[in-house]
Amino acid sequence: MNKSILEQLQAPFYEEDIEWKIGTVNDKNEPIKGLAMAYITNRAIQARLDDVCGVFGWKNEFVEWGDKGQLCGISIWDEEKRQWITKWDGADDTNFEATKGGLSASMKRAAYQWGIGRYLYNLPAQWVEVRPAGKSWRIKEKPKMPMWALPDCNREYICEKCQNPLMEGDGKTIPQIVVGSKKIFDGHIYCLDCIRIEWKQKKGEG
Ligand SMILES: [Zn+2]
What we know:
Elements: H1 3-10, E1 18-26, E2 33-40, H2 42-53, E3 58-65, E4 69-78, E5 83-92, H3 101-113, E6 126-133, E7 136-139, H4 174-184, H5 192-205
Antiparallel strand pairs: 1-2, 2-6, 3-4, 4-5, 6-7
The chain binds zinc ion.
């Protein structure tokens, strides 16, 4: 299988694609704190597979696993070998929310087998304030992702106007400049110098 496909599958996700669940809770002290664990949402996993493999280039299937578990297999079409390659993993139905817990959790695990979201294992342990919510716990404030765990932070961006690599400046990081530039200039990525020039022209016209 093409190496770049695997790299694209393993790329970090934006914070809105992360969901947090609480593992161990320490309620001996106030405030009550829990260990926050990050997962990629299943919606984002599917979107990633669509983007990298094409809508018809991947498929998933579920089978019952013992009494109360689910196995999920994610298959990706290997164009070189002209065959489907499948990775399986399973989860207990009781692991997560009871209803579609097993299905959803087993898909996350099968996705990890492909490297999707595997970088989340490298996050430092994060204890956060939690409050009781029924039988489980709810996070008061979601933990922040470190820069390395966000998309594009190691990628080199080239300004679409002057063709120079983007540099940080004005107290802004490169990812912040990229997001800002895309927002202001209809998806185009410009360096800070070109943003200033474009911005002046834009204002001049208006
Ligand atoms: Zn430029």
